[in-house]
């Protein structure tokens, strides 16, 4: 018998990405990104409590182009993780496992997170300007 080198378990090289697998990966990645952003939030809150100079430094970094991009991504990760987490809670009750519903709720989490991110940033700019 020839020694054929094949993966011993299902692998990304074999299976085509599907919405269900991609939403699972995105849920994990958004959770990691939120966890990495949490120390920045704590640092920003600490800077508020520790005086004007520290707050101005934190504000300058967060207001920079890179800071705003990271904050935008953090906002999107928050809303995606929230909506997909609600989807997971529905699954815990036994609802939504059929493929059509899984696809509808998956797209709802993706599109909903984009819409909520846009609304949050638009409100933020409106409150800042007005």
Question: Would you write up a description of this structure?
Answer:
Helix content is 78%, strand content 0%. It is mostly helical and 130 residues long. The protein has one domain (22-129): Fumarate reductase/succinate dehydrogenase, transmembrane subunit (3 helical TM bundles of succinate and fumarate reductases), CATH 1.20.1300.10. α3 (65-92) runs antiparallel to α4. The longest helix is centred in the first third of the chain and has 31 residues, at 19-49. It is elongated and about 70 Å long.
Task: Provide the fold topology.
Blueprint: H1 19-49, H2 52-63, H3 65-92, H4 99-129
Q: What's the tally of helices?
A: 4
Give the % helix.
over 70%
End-to-end separation in angstroms reads 76 Å
CATH architecture: Up-down Bundle
Question: What is the total tally of β strands?
Answer: 0
């Amino acid at each position: 018998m020839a020694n054929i080198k094949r993966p011993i378990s299902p692998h990304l090289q074999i299976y085509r990405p599907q919405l269900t697998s991609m939403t699972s990966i995105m849920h994990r990645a958004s959770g990691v990104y939120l966890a990495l952003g949490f120390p920045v939030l704590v640092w920003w809150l600490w800077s508020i409590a520790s005086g004007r100079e520290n707050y101005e430094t934190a504000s300058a970094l967060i207001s920079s182009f890179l800071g705003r991009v990271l904050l935008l991504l953090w906002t999107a990760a928050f809303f995606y993780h929230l909506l997909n987490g609600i989807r997971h809670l529905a699954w815990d009750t036994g609802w939504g496992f059929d493929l059509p519903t899984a696809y509808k709720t998956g797209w709802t989490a993706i599109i909903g997170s984009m819409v909520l991110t846009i609304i949050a940033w638009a409100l933020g700019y409106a409150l800042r300007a007005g």
